[in-house]
User: Fold this.
Amino acid sequence: MNSRPVWLGKPKPIAVALKALALVLICAVVIFPFLVVISTSLATKQQIDANGGYVIWPTEISFEAYKQIFNGTQVSRSIVISVGVTAVGTAFSLACTVLAAYGLSRRQSLFQRGLLSFVLFTLLFAPGMIPVYLMVKQLGMLNTYWSLIIPTAVSAFNIVIVRGFIQAIPHELFDAARMDGAGEWRILRSVVLPNSKAVVAVVGLFIAVGYWNNYFGPLLYLNDTEMWPLQLVMRTFVLENNVTSNAQAIPGYVAPPAQSVQMALVAIATLPILCVYPFLTKHMSKGMLTGAIKG
Amino acid sequence: MAVNQTLPRVNPPPENKLSAQRKMPFLSRLWRDSPLLVMVAPAVIILLLFTYIPLLGSVIAFMDYVPFLGFTGSEWVGWANFSSLFSDTAFWNALWNTAQITFLQIVLFFPVPIVLAVLLNTVAMPLAKRFVQSVIYLPHFLSWVIIVALFQQILGGNGVLNRFLITHGLTPLEIMSNPDTFKLLLTTQAIWKDAGWGTIIFLAAIAAINPGLYEAATIDGAGAWQRFWHVTLPGMRPIIVLMLILRLGDALTVGFEQILLQRDAVGPGAAEVLDTFTYFNGVVDGSWGTATAAGLLKGVVSLLLVLAANKLAHRLGEEGVYRR
Assistant:
């Protein structure tokens, strides 16, 4: 596999070696932290102690750290909360995005230009943190999960991307559907959605990653620690070193080292991202980029 | 404007169709398009509630806002919030920190994706290229909590590096909690997270360069370095200028979550930036007016910066974000 054009001639071996070395180093810098975190979370206490606190390759796999995380009430609950907020938020946000994208896709429709400008204008100006907070408060959404879901549900950028794809669907399909007497909702379901599955999937994944990673939203809007999602709980456990609050006082129970419990938490928070990542990369370069360029 | 440029120009309708539609009475158009309007409604309502009204709500920067009294009951104080802001040394400290971090990021972070993209572009094996791309895009999708936690586990006081140093009889390094080098740490984290992702736009720019130019340059005897200097770089220049302008527009926005997570470790003296200043003044301390004033100031200055940078780009013969 070599796409080097003939006219370039043969590359110098030194240049190739240097380039390969640079790329390997760059990849290593990215991969190494993940490797250490996952290895240490899976390693046994003996190996971690013998190695001085971390493990690069576990010789023996132990799930003690993960067991402890799922025994602790707060972490288990926060995982459920994060999954729930992400699922509901993604469904809601995606619905708003696709509906708006189709609603704005027809250049001849009533108020289309004005509404499109209304949406696009938000790309230029972002309101300050305080007025948004006061708005959420005014609407009585403080200390509810809606505060994490609704304020960030609509992004003009996502609407523009999905709209671009909808507009690229051949006109004949719409005309045929209309000829058969289909209304707008029917067209959305039978023409638009089947033809824009890829972009809806990618935009949906981006939205989901955003909800899963949301850290400032819950910090700002949720006072009750019982309601905290995983990202916030992770901050207290990993960055503020509060891991012992989760340990159980069972006689004879040897707690796994704090190090591996912390790393297991980081691994769990990363896992969903790693799971959807292959799908993201598969469509990303094709879908997002062409979508962004075509508009 | 950039926004307008991204609008698709597919299938312009024929002239007669357009005029036929214009003649349609308003009410029948409303009836025909009502499903579309219903579809747009949720998005419009959410944008109205959480973008437009809060934008108008920035007027509390000119009020002595008391949540109990609300917008209508609170007293107008003119520029008092701004003058108390300007006499607050914490505000100037936050502004100075923000400026320093932006400067560091433009000097150290901004070139990295460009260099990476050029390097990636010279990789001839598609499989290797795709692998490297997959690896370096990944950190972009992780939350700042995870990124900071990873850095903590590797470079922190109890992290891998220091344990390695201790077991080998060396003095441990204080990296995560040193106020003097905190801004460099922030920049390093930002590079680790987003430099790979940033290559996408530059790779697209390189891919758009006509390969014939390279061929011609090679036939004229240009070496790899000369081809880079005279073909690749000029080809990327419009995108580089565009990204630089956009970055300047964000000059006052520097990694809010990232800094908030690590502020306690180094203290506000080194870590307070405009956004964290707004957060702690407003949400934590309840000085709504002053905090909103800081936020409003930030928004206005950012807009002015984009306009100024764009003007400069036009002066230099570049296209910038929007055309003249």
